[in-house]
Amino acid sequence: MGTASQTNMYALKFVSFCVVFLYSAPCGQAYTWYTGEQRLTEFQSDYANSKADIFFLMDNSGSLIYNGRTGFRDEKVFITSLLTKIKIAKPATRVSIIRFGTHATIDINYISNLNGLNNKCEFNEAFSRIKYTGVMTNMNAGFQKVEEILFGAQSTNVRPWKVIDPKGVYVNKVVFLLTDGEYNNGGNPMSKINNIKTNNVELFAVGVGGVDQSFMRSAATTAGHYFYYSDFNSFRELATHIRGDPYQPDYDAEHVPKSKCTSTCDDNASCGCGLLSGKYICICHAGFYGTGEKGKCTACTHGTYKKYPGLAEKSCTNCPGNSGHNKLGSKTIQDCKCNKGYEGSPASGKACTIKPCRSLPIPSDGYTNPTSCGSDYRSVCTFNCDYGFELIGPKVRTCTVRDDNKGAAYWSPTDTAPDCK
Known about the structure:
Layout: H1 4-11, E1 17-21, H2 36-47, E2 52-59, E3 65-66, E4 69-70, H3 71-82, E5 94-100, E6 104-109, H4 120-128, H5 139-150, E7 172-178, H6 190-198, E8 202-208, H7 213-219, E9 226-229, H8 232-243, E10 251-252, E11 269-274, E12 280-284, E13 288-290, E14 297-299, E15 304-305, E16 317-318, E17 323-324, E18 337-338, E19 342-343, E20 353-354, E21 366-369, E22 380-385, E23 391-392, E24 396-400, E25 410-412, E26 419-420
Parallel strand pairs: 2-5, 2-7, 8-9
Antiparallel strand pairs: 1-8, 3-4, 5-6, 10-11, 11-12, 13-14, 15-16, 17-18, 19-20, 21-22, 22-24, 23-26, 24-25
Helix pairs in contact: 2-8, 3-8
Protein backbone atom coordinates (compact mmCIF):
# COMPACT_ATOMS: atom_id res chain seq x y z
CA MET A 1 0.00 0.00 0.00
CA GLY A 2 1.58 3.34 -1.03
CA THR A 3 1.75 6.52 1.03
CA ALA A 4 -0.53 9.50 0.39
CA SER A 5 2.34 11.31 -1.32
CA GLN A 6 2.94 8.30 -3.56
CA THR A 7 -0.77 8.20 -4.40
CA ASN A 8 -0.69 11.89 -5.34
CA MET A 9 2.44 11.32 -7.38
CA TYR A 10 0.82 8.56 -9.41
CA ALA A 11 -2.33 10.65 -9.80
CA LEU A 12 -0.15 13.26 -11.46
CA LYS A 13 1.51 10.87 -13.86
CA PHE A 14 1.55 12.28 -17.35
CA VAL A 15 1.64 11.38 -20.99
CA SER A 16 4.41 12.81 -23.16
CA PHE A 17 4.83 12.74 -26.87
CA CYS A 18 8.15 12.87 -28.66
CA VAL A 19 7.99 13.63 -32.36
CA VAL A 20 11.10 12.49 -34.17
CA PHE A 21 11.58 13.31 -37.82
CA LEU A 22 14.62 13.27 -39.94
CA TYR A 23 16.28 16.54 -40.71
CA SER A 24 18.78 18.57 -38.73
CA ALA A 25 18.33 22.24 -37.94
CA PRO A 26 21.05 24.60 -39.18
CA CYS A 27 23.64 25.52 -36.58
CA GLY A 28 22.72 28.60 -34.61
CA GLN A 29 19.11 28.58 -35.80
CA ALA A 30 16.78 30.23 -33.30
CA TYR A 31 13.61 28.40 -32.29
CA THR A 32 10.41 30.13 -31.19
CA TRP A 33 7.75 28.79 -28.82
CA TYR A 34 4.52 27.45 -30.27
CA THR A 35 1.39 26.14 -28.68
CA GLY A 36 1.03 22.36 -29.03
CA GLU A 37 -1.92 22.88 -31.37
CA GLN A 38 0.03 25.18 -33.70
CA ARG A 39 3.12 22.98 -33.89
CA LEU A 40 1.24 19.72 -34.34
CA THR A 41 -1.01 21.30 -36.97
CA GLU A 42 2.18 22.30 -38.78
CA PHE A 43 3.34 18.70 -38.51
CA GLN A 44 0.08 17.54 -40.16
CA SER A 45 0.55 20.06 -42.94
CA ASP A 46 4.18 19.08 -43.50
CA TYR A 47 3.33 15.39 -43.82
CA ALA A 48 -0.14 15.57 -45.43
CA ASN A 49 1.15 14.84 -48.93
CA SER A 50 4.59 13.44 -48.30
CA LYS A 51 6.20 10.15 -47.37
CA ALA A 52 7.12 9.36 -43.77
CA ASP A 53 7.62 6.39 -41.47
CA ILE A 54 5.89 7.18 -38.16
CA PHE A 55 6.29 5.21 -34.93
CA PHE A 56 3.84 5.61 -32.06
CA LEU A 57 5.20 4.33 -28.72
CA MET A 58 2.17 3.95 -26.44
CA ASP A 59 2.56 3.78 -22.67
CA ASN A 60 0.57 0.76 -21.48
CA SER A 61 1.44 1.05 -17.78
CA GLY A 62 -0.82 1.07 -14.72
CA SER A 63 0.03 4.69 -13.89
CA LEU A 64 -2.22 5.97 -16.70
CA ILE A 65 -5.39 5.51 -14.62
CA TYR A 66 -7.08 8.79 -13.63
CA ASN A 67 -10.62 9.60 -12.49
CA GLY A 68 -11.80 6.10 -13.33
CA ARG A 69 -10.57 6.16 -16.93
CA THR A 70 -7.27 5.54 -18.68
CA GLY A 71 -4.91 7.90 -20.41
CA PHE A 72 -4.37 5.07 -22.90
CA ARG A 73 -7.77 5.90 -24.41
CA ASP A 74 -6.66 9.53 -24.77
CA GLU A 75 -3.45 8.36 -26.43
CA LYS A 76 -5.56 6.56 -29.04
CA VAL A 77 -7.72 9.66 -29.58
CA PHE A 78 -4.57 11.73 -30.10
CA ILE A 79 -3.10 9.29 -32.63
CA THR A 80 -6.37 9.03 -34.56
CA SER A 81 -6.73 12.82 -34.62
CA LEU A 82 -3.16 13.44 -35.73
CA LEU A 83 -3.54 10.98 -38.62
CA THR A 84 -6.76 12.48 -40.04
CA LYS A 85 -4.78 14.54 -42.55
CA ILE A 86 -2.03 12.00 -43.20
CA LYS A 87 -2.42 9.24 -45.81
CA ILE A 88 -1.44 5.73 -44.76
CA ALA A 89 -0.37 3.42 -47.59
CA LYS A 90 2.78 1.60 -48.71
CA PRO A 91 3.84 4.32 -51.19
CA ALA A 92 2.84 7.14 -48.79
CA THR A 93 3.13 7.20 -44.98
CA ARG A 94 3.78 3.95 -43.11
CA VAL A 95 2.93 3.56 -39.43
CA SER A 96 4.02 1.36 -36.53
CA ILE A 97 2.31 1.03 -33.13
CA ILE A 98 4.45 -0.18 -30.21
CA ARG A 99 3.02 -0.66 -26.70
CA PHE A 100 5.32 -0.80 -23.71
CA GLY A 101 4.43 -1.93 -20.19
CA THR A 102 6.47 -4.55 -18.39
CA HIS A 103 7.61 -5.59 -21.88
CA ALA A 104 7.24 -4.01 -25.32
CA THR A 105 5.05 -5.34 -28.14
CA ILE A 106 4.93 -4.36 -31.80
CA ASP A 107 1.18 -4.37 -32.48
CA ILE A 108 1.33 -2.83 -35.96
CA ASN A 109 4.39 -2.67 -38.21
CA TYR A 110 3.66 -1.26 -41.66
CA ILE A 111 7.16 0.25 -41.82
CA SER A 112 9.10 -2.94 -42.52
CA ASN A 113 6.44 -5.70 -42.66
CA LEU A 114 4.89 -5.32 -46.12
CA ASN A 115 2.79 -8.50 -46.20
CA GLY A 116 -0.59 -6.82 -45.66
CA LEU A 117 -2.54 -4.06 -47.44
CA ASN A 118 -0.97 -1.56 -45.01
CA ASN A 119 -3.51 1.17 -45.76
CA LYS A 120 -5.57 3.46 -43.50
CA CYS A 121 -8.59 1.11 -43.49
CA GLU A 122 -6.54 -1.87 -42.36
CA PHE A 123 -4.78 0.34 -39.81
CA ASN A 124 -8.07 1.55 -38.31
CA GLU A 125 -9.31 -2.03 -37.91
CA ALA A 126 -6.07 -3.20 -36.28
CA PHE A 127 -5.76 -0.09 -34.12
CA SER A 128 -9.28 -0.51 -32.73
CA ARG A 129 -8.31 -3.97 -31.46
CA ILE A 130 -5.38 -2.72 -29.37
CA LYS A 131 -6.34 -2.78 -25.68
CA TYR A 132 -4.96 -1.33 -22.46
CA THR A 133 -3.53 -3.84 -19.98
CA GLY A 134 -1.61 -1.73 -17.47
CA VAL A 135 1.51 -2.95 -15.64
CA MET A 136 5.04 -1.45 -15.42
CA THR A 137 6.71 1.25 -17.54
CA ASN A 138 9.54 -0.20 -19.64
CA MET A 139 10.17 2.74 -21.94
CA ASN A 140 13.62 1.38 -22.76
CA ALA A 141 12.08 -1.73 -24.33
CA GLY A 142 9.84 0.45 -26.49
CA PHE A 143 12.80 2.33 -27.94
CA GLN A 144 14.59 -0.99 -28.44
CA LYS A 145 11.73 -2.10 -30.72
CA VAL A 146 12.14 1.11 -32.72
CA GLU A 147 15.85 0.38 -33.09
CA GLU A 148 15.10 -3.19 -34.20
CA ILE A 149 12.91 -1.87 -37.01
CA LEU A 150 15.24 0.95 -38.03
CA PHE A 151 18.65 -0.65 -37.53
CA GLY A 152 18.23 -4.30 -36.55
CA ALA A 153 16.66 -7.62 -37.46
CA GLN A 154 13.45 -6.11 -38.84
CA SER A 155 15.03 -3.36 -40.95
CA THR A 156 15.16 -5.20 -44.30
CA ASN A 157 12.25 -3.35 -45.94
CA VAL A 158 12.71 0.02 -44.23
CA ARG A 159 12.93 2.88 -46.72
CA PRO A 160 16.23 4.83 -46.66
CA TRP A 161 16.34 8.03 -44.63
CA LYS A 162 18.64 10.99 -44.38
CA VAL A 163 21.25 9.41 -42.14
CA ILE A 164 21.71 6.66 -44.78
CA ASP A 165 21.20 8.70 -47.95
CA PRO A 166 21.82 12.38 -47.05
CA LYS A 167 21.88 13.70 -50.63
CA GLY A 168 19.52 11.25 -52.32
CA VAL A 169 15.86 10.30 -52.08
CA TYR A 170 14.95 9.54 -48.49
CA VAL A 171 11.89 9.15 -46.27
CA ASN A 172 11.58 11.01 -42.97
CA LYS A 173 11.47 8.92 -39.82
CA VAL A 174 9.10 10.09 -37.06
CA VAL A 175 8.63 8.72 -33.53
CA PHE A 176 5.82 9.75 -31.17
CA LEU A 177 6.54 8.62 -27.61
CA LEU A 178 3.41 8.45 -25.43
CA THR A 179 4.45 7.82 -21.82
CA ASP A 180 4.06 8.91 -18.22
CA GLY A 181 7.75 9.75 -18.28
CA GLU A 182 8.47 7.76 -15.11
CA TYR A 183 10.24 4.63 -16.33
CA ASN A 184 10.28 2.02 -13.55
CA ASN A 185 11.39 -1.09 -15.40
CA GLY A 186 14.07 -1.95 -17.96
CA GLY A 187 16.51 0.87 -17.22
CA ASN A 188 17.03 4.46 -18.34
CA PRO A 189 15.98 5.01 -22.00
CA MET A 190 18.13 8.12 -22.45
CA SER A 191 20.96 6.26 -24.22
CA LYS A 192 18.51 5.11 -26.88
CA ILE A 193 17.00 8.61 -27.12
CA ASN A 194 20.52 9.99 -27.61
CA ASN A 195 21.13 7.35 -30.26
CA ILE A 196 18.12 8.67 -32.14
CA LYS A 197 19.48 12.22 -31.87
CA THR A 198 22.91 11.08 -33.04
CA ASN A 199 21.27 9.61 -36.12
CA ASN A 200 20.18 13.07 -37.28
CA VAL A 201 16.66 13.13 -35.88
CA GLU A 202 14.64 15.82 -34.12
CA LEU A 203 12.66 15.25 -30.91
CA PHE A 204 9.49 17.05 -29.80
CA ALA A 205 8.01 16.39 -26.35
CA VAL A 206 4.52 17.08 -24.95
CA GLY A 207 3.88 16.55 -21.25
CA VAL A 208 0.55 16.22 -19.43
CA GLY A 209 0.05 16.71 -15.69
CA GLY A 210 2.90 16.15 -13.21
CA VAL A 211 5.62 15.98 -15.80
CA ASP A 212 9.31 15.40 -15.05
CA GLN A 213 10.37 18.56 -16.83
CA SER A 214 14.09 17.91 -16.52
CA PHE A 215 13.76 14.56 -18.29
CA MET A 216 11.46 15.97 -20.95
CA ARG A 217 13.75 18.89 -21.75
CA SER A 218 16.67 16.48 -22.02
CA ALA A 219 14.69 14.30 -24.41
CA ALA A 220 13.54 17.21 -26.59
CA THR A 221 15.85 18.68 -29.21
CA THR A 222 15.43 22.24 -27.86
CA ALA A 223 13.26 24.02 -25.31
CA GLY A 224 11.08 25.07 -28.21
CA HIS A 225 10.30 21.43 -28.88
CA TYR A 226 8.78 20.84 -25.43
CA PHE A 227 5.03 21.38 -24.77
CA TYR A 228 3.05 21.04 -21.55
CA TYR A 229 -0.64 20.40 -20.74
CA SER A 230 -1.96 20.59 -17.18
CA ASP A 231 -4.43 17.70 -17.41
CA PHE A 232 -5.96 15.10 -19.72
CA ASN A 233 -8.99 17.29 -20.45
CA SER A 234 -6.71 19.87 -22.06
CA PHE A 235 -4.87 17.07 -23.81
CA ARG A 236 -8.09 15.72 -25.36
CA GLU A 237 -9.01 19.24 -26.50
CA LEU A 238 -5.65 19.41 -28.30
CA ALA A 239 -6.47 16.18 -30.14
CA THR A 240 -9.84 17.63 -31.20
CA HIS A 241 -8.34 20.89 -32.43
CA ILE A 242 -5.65 19.30 -34.57
CA ARG A 243 -8.11 16.84 -36.13
CA GLY A 244 -9.70 19.39 -38.48
CA ASP A 245 -11.92 18.37 -41.39
CA PRO A 246 -10.67 15.31 -43.29
CA TYR A 247 -9.94 15.78 -46.97
CA GLN A 248 -10.24 12.74 -49.21
CA PRO A 249 -8.05 12.88 -52.34
CA ASP A 250 -6.52 9.40 -52.40
CA TYR A 251 -7.77 5.84 -52.34
CA ASP A 252 -6.22 2.39 -52.43
CA ALA A 253 -8.07 -0.35 -54.33
CA GLU A 254 -5.20 -2.82 -54.68
CA HIS A 255 -6.25 -6.28 -53.47
CA VAL A 256 -9.26 -4.91 -51.54
CA PRO A 257 -12.15 -7.44 -51.81
CA LYS A 258 -15.54 -6.02 -52.88
CA SER A 259 -17.07 -7.61 -49.79
CA LYS A 260 -15.46 -4.84 -47.73
CA CYS A 261 -17.91 -2.32 -49.24
CA THR A 262 -21.51 -2.19 -48.02
CA SER A 263 -22.82 -0.98 -51.43
CA THR A 264 -22.79 -2.95 -54.70
CA CYS A 265 -20.01 -1.53 -56.83
CA ASP A 266 -20.35 -0.76 -60.55
CA ASP A 267 -18.71 -3.04 -63.14
CA ASN A 268 -16.28 -0.16 -63.76
CA ALA A 269 -15.54 0.28 -60.05
CA SER A 270 -13.71 -1.46 -57.23
CA CYS A 271 -13.96 -1.42 -53.47
CA GLY A 272 -11.27 0.91 -52.17
CA CYS A 273 -9.90 2.32 -48.95
CA GLY A 274 -9.85 6.06 -48.28
CA LEU A 275 -6.27 6.67 -47.23
CA LEU A 276 -7.35 9.54 -44.97
CA SER A 277 -10.79 8.52 -43.71
CA GLY A 278 -9.92 4.83 -43.36
CA LYS A 279 -13.36 3.86 -44.73
CA TYR A 280 -14.18 1.39 -47.51
CA ILE A 281 -16.25 2.77 -50.40
CA CYS A 282 -16.85 1.98 -54.09
CA ILE A 283 -14.52 3.95 -56.36
CA CYS A 284 -14.68 4.20 -60.15
CA HIS A 285 -11.74 2.83 -62.13
CA ALA A 286 -9.23 5.04 -63.89
CA GLY A 287 -10.94 6.61 -66.91
CA PHE A 288 -14.35 6.76 -65.17
CA TYR A 289 -16.04 9.21 -62.81
CA GLY A 290 -19.03 8.93 -60.47
CA THR A 291 -19.91 7.65 -57.01
CA GLY A 292 -18.82 4.08 -57.79
CA GLU A 293 -22.12 2.36 -56.97
CA LYS A 294 -23.92 0.16 -59.50
CA GLY A 295 -24.70 2.20 -62.63
CA LYS A 296 -22.88 5.27 -61.29
CA CYS A 297 -19.58 5.21 -63.22
CA THR A 298 -19.33 7.19 -66.48
CA ALA A 299 -16.43 7.25 -68.95
CA CYS A 300 -14.37 10.44 -68.95
CA THR A 301 -15.56 12.78 -71.70
CA HIS A 302 -13.53 14.32 -74.55
CA GLY A 303 -10.73 16.53 -73.30
CA THR A 304 -10.66 14.99 -69.81
CA TYR A 305 -8.85 12.12 -68.11
CA LYS A 306 -8.64 10.29 -64.76
CA LYS A 307 -5.41 8.46 -64.09
CA TYR A 308 -6.25 6.86 -60.75
CA PRO A 309 -9.03 4.74 -59.26
CA GLY A 310 -10.80 7.09 -56.90
CA LEU A 311 -13.72 9.31 -56.07
CA ALA A 312 -14.49 11.92 -58.74
CA GLU A 313 -18.24 12.37 -58.48
CA LYS A 314 -18.92 15.05 -61.12
CA SER A 315 -16.19 14.94 -63.75
CA CYS A 316 -12.68 13.88 -64.66
CA THR A 317 -9.67 16.21 -64.82
CA ASN A 318 -9.60 18.67 -67.72
CA CYS A 319 -6.62 18.69 -70.06
CA PRO A 320 -4.30 21.68 -69.56
CA GLY A 321 -5.34 24.94 -71.20
CA ASN A 322 -5.69 24.99 -75.01
CA SER A 323 -5.34 21.22 -75.30
CA GLY A 324 -7.67 18.25 -75.52
CA HIS A 325 -8.43 14.90 -77.18
CA ASN A 326 -11.34 12.97 -78.70
CA LYS A 327 -11.14 9.82 -76.59
CA LEU A 328 -13.72 8.48 -74.15
CA GLY A 329 -12.47 7.01 -70.88
CA SER A 330 -8.97 8.48 -71.02
CA LYS A 331 -6.69 7.36 -68.20
CA THR A 332 -3.72 9.59 -68.83
CA ILE A 333 -2.72 13.19 -69.43
CA GLN A 334 -0.54 11.83 -72.24
CA ASP A 335 -3.71 11.77 -74.39
CA CYS A 336 -3.92 15.57 -74.19
CA LYS A 337 -2.60 17.28 -77.33
CA CYS A 338 -2.37 20.96 -78.15
CA ASN A 339 -5.35 22.35 -80.04
CA LYS A 340 -4.84 23.44 -83.64
CA GLY A 341 -2.80 26.61 -83.73
CA TYR A 342 -1.23 26.01 -80.31
CA GLU A 343 2.05 24.46 -79.18
CA GLY A 344 3.60 23.16 -75.98
CA SER A 345 3.80 20.12 -73.71
CA PRO A 346 0.37 19.50 -72.13
CA ALA A 347 1.54 16.06 -70.97
CA SER A 348 3.76 17.90 -68.47
CA GLY A 349 0.72 19.70 -67.08
CA LYS A 350 1.43 23.03 -68.76
CA ALA A 351 -1.06 24.96 -70.90
CA CYS A 352 -0.36 25.23 -74.62
CA THR A 353 0.48 28.63 -76.07
CA ILE A 354 -0.73 30.10 -79.35
CA LYS A 355 1.59 29.80 -82.36
CA PRO A 356 2.85 33.09 -83.83
CA CYS A 357 3.54 33.92 -87.45
CA ARG A 358 6.60 35.96 -88.27
CA SER A 359 5.98 39.70 -88.33
CA LEU A 360 5.39 41.05 -91.83
CA PRO A 361 6.87 44.51 -92.42
CA ILE A 362 4.53 47.30 -93.51
CA PRO A 363 5.60 48.27 -97.02
CA SER A 364 6.97 51.74 -97.55
CA ASP A 365 4.29 53.89 -99.15
CA GLY A 366 1.66 51.56 -97.65
CA TYR A 367 -0.34 50.77 -94.52
CA THR A 368 -2.31 47.97 -92.87
CA ASN A 369 -5.85 47.48 -91.68
CA PRO A 370 -6.07 47.25 -88.75
CA THR A 371 -3.30 49.74 -88.11
CA SER A 372 -1.44 47.30 -85.88
CA CYS A 373 -1.84 43.79 -87.30
CA GLY A 374 -1.47 40.87 -84.95
CA SER A 375 0.75 37.91 -85.74
CA ASP A 376 -0.81 35.08 -83.70
CA TYR A 377 -2.67 32.13 -85.21
CA ARG A 378 -5.88 33.25 -87.02
CA SER A 379 -4.74 36.87 -87.16
CA VAL A 380 -5.91 38.60 -90.37
CA CYS A 381 -4.00 41.52 -91.86
CA THR A 382 -5.08 43.61 -94.86
CA PHE A 383 -2.39 45.57 -96.76
CA ASN A 384 -3.03 48.75 -98.73
CA CYS A 385 -0.87 51.19 -100.64
CA ASP A 386 -0.90 54.96 -100.54
CA TYR A 387 -2.57 56.85 -103.39
CA GLY A 388 -0.63 56.42 -106.60
CA PHE A 389 0.99 53.11 -105.62
CA GLU A 390 0.05 49.54 -106.52
CA LEU A 391 0.21 46.55 -104.12
CA ILE A 392 2.42 43.68 -105.21
CA GLY A 393 1.11 40.38 -103.78
CA PRO A 394 -2.12 39.28 -102.07
CA LYS A 395 -3.96 42.02 -100.19
CA VAL A 396 -5.24 39.85 -97.30
CA ARG A 397 -2.98 37.57 -95.25
CA THR A 398 -4.15 35.06 -92.59
CA CYS A 399 -1.90 33.45 -89.99
CA THR A 400 -2.55 29.71 -90.27
CA VAL A 401 -1.06 26.26 -89.60
CA ARG A 402 -1.00 22.88 -91.29
CA ASP A 403 -3.98 20.57 -90.78
CA ASP A 404 -1.86 18.24 -88.63
CA ASN A 405 -0.68 21.24 -86.55
CA LYS A 406 2.96 20.33 -87.16
CA GLY A 407 5.59 22.98 -87.73
CA ALA A 408 5.44 26.72 -87.35
CA ALA A 409 2.54 29.01 -88.19
CA TYR A 410 2.74 30.86 -91.52
CA TRP A 411 0.94 33.55 -93.51
CA SER A 412 -1.52 32.39 -96.15
CA PRO A 413 -1.81 32.57 -99.11
CA THR A 414 1.86 33.59 -99.08
CA ASP A 415 4.53 34.24 -96.49
CA THR A 416 6.31 36.74 -98.76
CA ALA A 417 6.33 40.32 -97.51
CA PRO A 418 4.08 42.64 -99.55
CA ASP A 419 5.37 45.69 -101.41
CA CYS A 420 3.98 48.88 -102.94
CA LYS A 421 5.28 50.06 -106.33
